[in-house]
Amino acid sequence: MAEPNQGNLGNTFIAGLWRENPVFRLLLGMCPTLAVTGAVKPALTMSICVMFVLTCSNIVVSLMRNLLKPHLRILMFTLTIATFVTIADLAVKAFAPEMSTTLGPYIPLIIVNCIIIGRAEACASKNNLITSITDALGMSLGFTIALCILASVRELLAAGTIFDIAVMPDKFVPLAAMSMPVGAFITLGLILGLINAITKKRA
Amino acid sequence: MDYVQTLIMAFISVVLVNNLVLTKFLGICPYLGVSGRLDMAFGMGMAVTFVVTLAGTLTWLIDHLILMNPALEAYGLDVTRYVCFILVIAGAVQLVEMYLRKFFPTLYESFGIFLPLITTNCAILGLCLFLNLWDIHNFAQAVVLSFGAGIGFTIAICIMAGIRENLNMADVPKCLRGAPITLITAGLLTLAFMGFAGMIK
Questions:
Q1: CA atoms of B198 and B201, how far apart (whole Å)
Q2: Predicted TM-score (pTM) of this structure
Q3: Fewer CB atoms inside 10 A, N or C side of chain A?
Q4: Domain of A113?
Q5: Could you read off the pLDDT of A5-26 as tens digits, one per residue?
Q6: For A132-186, what is each residue's pLDDT tens digit?
Q7: CB-count burial class (<10 Å; 0-12, 13-18, 19+) for A160
């Protein structure tokens, strides 16, 4: 994981989108990526939660970076993240109860999402506030894009809809397997293969 | 007899039918990361089984004796559930690490980096949350489910490691090498495990 350049905020932001895309490039945060991408709506809710938690935890970690003792570092990160995840979980329960049932345990599982703890360790604990926030926004936007791509492919093939709007012709036979774990693994595998093929050709 | 039967059914269901890795996508990071060699995969599986049994049991106790205790309901303690759970897991991992280093140094050496990594294994926190979500009100059942989840993880990661050791010798298209082919293999494996779905109602 390359260190974001202190002086170049634009680069830090862009890095999360493509060059260091957390899902496609670094293979972090696989659990939510695979679990909530059955349809676009839960994927988007999940991304917003991750964006909130990542930004807030990066801010807090960046502010307390000079007070951290090395051996208690990870524990402090985890506790900070767990607090913000509780806030996000309660907010989703209050404002979108049916979405909360769909996502089930995957919102609390943001606590152990490697993207967040990885960014706290690799970026926020070493950089100032502004860089950390930029990094958090870039990374979570990259995560959102990856989740949305995966979810659109799966929802399109599993139900013939995107965002609950029918887009496929009536004759289209939905592939039920795409909404199951099989679809998740194979779609992500093929997308990664495609990305590899594209980048190899360019290089 | 009925009681024992329920426990056995719970064990089989969490190992095969509701396998955390293959049906709930939990613990995917080590599943993809450490499944390169069979012996390492087995070591990881054992470490996870141990911690998940300990953590599942402890969090169930905390959840039922403190957080959901009717006498303490007025304080709204269940808000702190996630913070408590993650602290218990981190503590359990630390405890296991210290115990192994002191009494089984060779085993400790062979676990290496895996032990601290287990703290952020979603299978462990996931199981603790599922015990709460499935409404398990029986202590023995909670212990059996926690242990079964660990065994299920071990089985999944060992099968994967076995396949990947053979995959090294296969002629995989260049762009699919590494992670993509692993994910596709995992997909086919979940398809196989779906065959168990009808086994327990």
A1: 7
A2: 0.86
A3: C
A4: 14-149
A5: 455 788 878 887 777 888 888 7
A6: 999 999 999 999 999 999 999 998 888 888 877 777 777 778 888 888 888 899 9
A7: middle
Query: Residue B194, SS3?
Result: helix
pLDDT tens across B4-26, in order? 888 898 898 888 888 888 888 88
| CB-CB under 8 Å, B181 with A196 | no
Evaluate whether residue B7 is within a structural domain.
Answer: no
Q: Do A43 and A106 meet the contact criterion of CB atoms below 8 Å apart?
A: no
Taking residue A166's Cβ as centre, other Cβ atoms within 10 Å add up to 11
d(CA B199, CA B201): 7
On whether residue B114 sits in a domain, the answer given is yes
Encoded tokens for B89: 């897991």
* Residue B198 counted as domain residue: no
Written as six digits, the tokens of B72 are 């303490």
Q: What is the domain count for chain A?
A: 1
In this structure, is residue A178 part of a structural domain?
Answer: no
For testing contact with chain B, the best of A150, A154, A182, A201 (most B CBs within 10 A): A182
Write out chain B residues lying below 8 Å of A190, CB-based: 180, 184
Phi, psi for residue A75 in degrees, rounded to 5: -60, -45
- Does B176 sit within 8 Å of A193, measured CB to CB? yes
Q: Are A101 and A36 in contact (CB under 8 A)?
A: no
Q: Which domain holds residue B172?
A: 21-193
Considering the domain boundaries, does residue B9 fall inside one? no
Do B187 and A193 lie within an 8 Å CB cutoff?
no
With respect to residue A180, please indicate whether it lies within any of the assigned structural domains.
no
Interface pTM, i.e. ipTM: 0.83
- Whether residue A99 is contained in a domain is answered as yes
- Give the Å distances, CA to CA, from B169 to A49, A135, A136, B163, B185: 42, 40, 40, 11, 15
Asked if B45 contacts B154 with a C-beta cutoff of 8 angstroms, the reply is yes
User: Which segments within chain A are labelled E, that is strand?
Assistant: 161-162, 165-166
Q: How many distinct structural domains can be found in chain B?
A: 1
Q: Using CA atoms, how far apart are residues B25 and B31, in angstroms rounded to an integer?
A: 10
Q: Chain A contacts of B34, Cβ < 8 Å? A: none
Question: Which of B122, B125, B175 is the closest to A200 by Cβ?
Answer: B175
Question: Does A55 map to a domain?
Answer: yes
State which of A11-25, A83-97, B28-42 shows the largest mean pLDDT.
A83-97
Most A-contacting residue of B28, B134, B193 (CB-CB within 10 A), to test interface? B28
